[in-house]
Specification:
The complex is a heterodimer of chains A (151) and B (154). Chain A is of the alpha+beta class. Chain A has helices spanning 3-9, 12-30, 34-40, 57-68, and strands spanning 41-49, 52-55, 73-87, 92-104, 113-127, 130-145. Chain A has a six-stranded mixed sheet with strand order 2-1-6-5-4-3. Chain B has helices spanning 3-32, 35-40, 59-69, and strands spanning 42-50, 56-57, 74-87, 90-102, 111-125, 128-143. In chain B, strand 4 and strand 5 form a beta hairpin. Classes of the chains: A alpha+beta (151), B alpha+beta (154). Chain A binds chain B through residues 11-13, 16, 20, 23-24, 26-27, 72-73, 75-79, 102, 104, 112-113, and chain B through 1, 9-10, 12-13, 16, 80-83, 94, 96, 98, 115-117, 139-140, 142.
């Protein structure tokens, strides 16, 4: 594919919208804003975290809400967002981003914070609701702090 | 794409970049103690509400509070997770913050991280985006609480 082909079908605003998806997802889950998650994920999207796999946005929301329930706060820091357009004509791209997620719960024996660092590798597609994730995969590379905060 | 819709798209992208720049300029102003730059990020009537404190009303009150908070230390305000909603000449934004505060020689450790979320309202007057309202919600801290933060967390 030539640069001209991409320019004909993927605009700068498309790239801006795609680049914003990992951040919108992170901000939504930190705010327990599940409609915000539905806005950025296709209904049939899948989420792979290590050995675990979740199919469908509602299953992903159940898993995420359960994992974050009871925390005083979480903060998913996203950086290094890279977009590779894989199919300009049909509207598909691969997105990678780095994550540092802080989890806070006061009063837990052994410390109040647990930090998780990793990499998201995502597939996104342009559908009826605009650009959305169709697949997210999280690879955790390191943790720091008290795992009892976020069992 | 028509020329006019292309111009509108470029305008929206330019607005987002300009607003991001205001967020970063505010951080740079704090970290370099450049109060002239801080003044350029906000309208004179801006209200800043730091978590747990009464609203600071107007540029002078904001400058006095943050300069006092950061006196005698270095800082780095790391910003990520920027989201911007445009509404004509008004906009809302939110970004995540991890602010490292460094005061060498503090008993118990030299550093304190304050992490949270800035939520902002901006206006474009004469084509220049500036804050009119800013709040900081603190989510967590890590490090030595003895590293002083003065009256507000910045």
């Amino acid at each position: 594919m030539t640069q001209q082909d991409i320019a004909d079908t993927i605009t700068l605003e498309d790239l801006d919208t795609i680049r914003a998806l990992p951040v919108r997802y992170a901000n939504a889950i930190d705010a327990a804003d599940w409609d915000g998650v539905r806005a950025v994920m296709a209904p049939t999207a899948s989420f792979i975290a290590g050995e675990d796999s979740f199919d469908g946005v509602e299953s992903i929301i159940d898993m995420t809400a359960g994992a974050l329930h009871g925390l005083d706060a979480s903060q998913h820091f996203i950086s290094n967002v890279v977009v590779d357009v894989t199919d300009a004509a049909d509207g598909a791209a691969t997105v990678t981003s780095y994550l540092q997620a802080q989890h806070v719960k006061e009063g837990v024996d052994g410390g109040a914070t647990f930090l998780v660092g990793g990499v998201f590798t995502d597939q996104v597609a342009r559908g009826h609701s605009g650009w959305q994730f169709t697949r997210r995969s999280l690879r955790v590379l390191w943790t720091e702090g008290n795992p009892a905060v976020h069992p | 794409m028509t020329a006019s819709s292309s111009a509108a798209v470029n305008g929206r992208i330019a607005d987002r970049r300009a607003i991001e720049r205001v967020l970063y300029d505010y951080a740079t102003a704090l970290d370099s103690k450049d109060w002239a730059l801080l003044a350029r990020t906000m309208e004179p009537e801006t209200v800043f509400t730091p978590d747990g404190f009464a609203p600071l009303e107007g540029y002078a009150a904001i400058r006095d509070a943050v300069s006092s908070a950061l006196e005698g230390q270095r800082s780095l305000h790391y910003l990520t997770n920027v989201e911007i909603e445009l509404d004509g000449v008004r906009a809302r934004s939110r970004c995540s913050l991890q602010a490292q505060h460094i005061r060498v020689g503090t008993p118990g450790g030299d550093t304190l991280i304050v992490a949270g979320v800035y939520r902002d309202e901006l206006v474009a007057r004469a084509g220049t985006w500036r804050f009119v309202r800013r709040s900081l919600q603190v989510l967590w801290t890590r490090g030595n609480p003895a590293v002083p933060l003065g009256k507000v967390a910045g």
